[in-house]
Amino acid sequence: MTPQDMEARIVRYGELQPCKTAFIDAHTPGSDQKENFTIIGGGVSESADQHVHITEPHGFNIGAAGQPPNCRNSLHNHRTAEVFFVLKGRWRFFWGRWGDAGEVVLEEGDIINIPTNLFRGFENIGTDYGMIMAVLGGDDAGGGVLWAPQVIEDAKAHGLVLGDNGKLYDSKKGQTLPEGVKPMPLLTDAELAEIPEPSAKEVVGGYVRRYWDLVSIAGKKPAKVIGENGVIRDKPGFEIDFITRASASEEKHSHDKPSVLMPVKGHWRIDWDGGHAILAPGDTMSVPENLAHSAVPSMSGEASMYHVVATGDPAGATWKG
């Protein structure tokens, strides 16, 4: 595969195209400055303005959220896996019907595998613009997002209405629901009662791993972060490994499904038969199935990356509580 072919499979951090109207809370004060990025796959954006960088199905979606300080993503629910790692900044993740069942603060490199069927939100509590990278289960990412009722009501008060077709309509732009399309119904009290609210101890203990803990266990081989035999034991439809300078190898390997490389720290040289490329933190590289490749740091200093590959497992519920 030529370098030109592979460059088309690399989304550089500096070339990411944001969407500021991706979700229903795009006009809601406190959430109206967030940027959504869809890197691989269609994601769960509700806006026709969302740019998709790589459309090829991988068995999962890769996205990102960029937010200035004190900006938050409102409470929502997914039926498939949602994994985040912090690329830049300091972030507070919270969950529950009203966002008060539990919370955890994550630093750069930390990762959280948020259990499905929970209302969750997140907020940049750092001092600068922050970025979190996301992996969503399945090629269709579950077909959308379920919003907490108060989020839908707040959005309507600021001009945005979500149709039952999963599309947003902005009354500030003169848009109205098309004929035959009704507003997205609010979840009933009975439906809300079926959504669990685990404690911080339950979520943090089972679904959060700290960057420096992963560095310590990624000795001579990569650490299995999420997988049937991972430090987070789960089968969300993909596996995630953590690679450091100490665990990187120049020996080429391949996978029978497309895989994705996402540097966290340092610069990485990716070699394959036919060429090589250099990745920096925030870059995302899709490696074709059955292509032999290797990844090693290209400069001295701290170096780490996350590696994602589909497993074919159903991207079903992860919460066992």
UniProtKB/TrEMBL annotation:
Residues 68-132 form the Cupin type-2 domain. SUPFAM superfamilies: RmlC-like cupins. It comes from the Bacteria. InterPro entries: Cupin_2, RmlC-like_jellyroll, RmlC_Cupin_sf. This is Cupin domain-containing protein.
